[in-house]
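A.,

Following up on our hallway conversation. Structure tokens first:
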């Protein structure tokens, strides 16, 4: 089971094993204020990371196109998740883990 209160530990492709962890936010609701708060937290947390950190915003469904485009311009990647019973599942997570997915 994924603990929605803890950061995901993902490394960018090509980063050494000692590479940086990304900044991430997992939101459980889709209100504009909640999404904005998650994006702001990502941007603030990303400032303390070296280089070009991977900024992941996990949401239960994709936001409207206009908001998705704004997040993209801020270099925030979306990770959409769903539920299987009481477990969160991240069907597109393999895209961020090519060494494991291949």
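Then the amino acids I'd put at each of the 102 positions:
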């Amino acid at each position: 089971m994924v603990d929605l209160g803890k950061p995901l530990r993902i490394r960018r492709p090509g980063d050494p094993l000692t590479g940086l962890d990304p900044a991430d936010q997992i939101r459980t609701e889709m209100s504009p204020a909640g999404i904005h708060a998650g994006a702001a937290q990502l941007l603030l947390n990303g400032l303390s990371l070296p280089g070009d950190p991977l900024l992941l915003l996990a949401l239960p469904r994709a936001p409207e196109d206009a908001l998705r485009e704004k997040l993209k311009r801020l270099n925030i990647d979306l990770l959409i998740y769903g539920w299987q019973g009481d477990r969160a599942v991240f069907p597109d997570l393999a895209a961020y883990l090519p060494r494991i997915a291949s």
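The helical segments are 32-46, 65-73, 98-101. Curious whether your intuition agrees with the design.

B.
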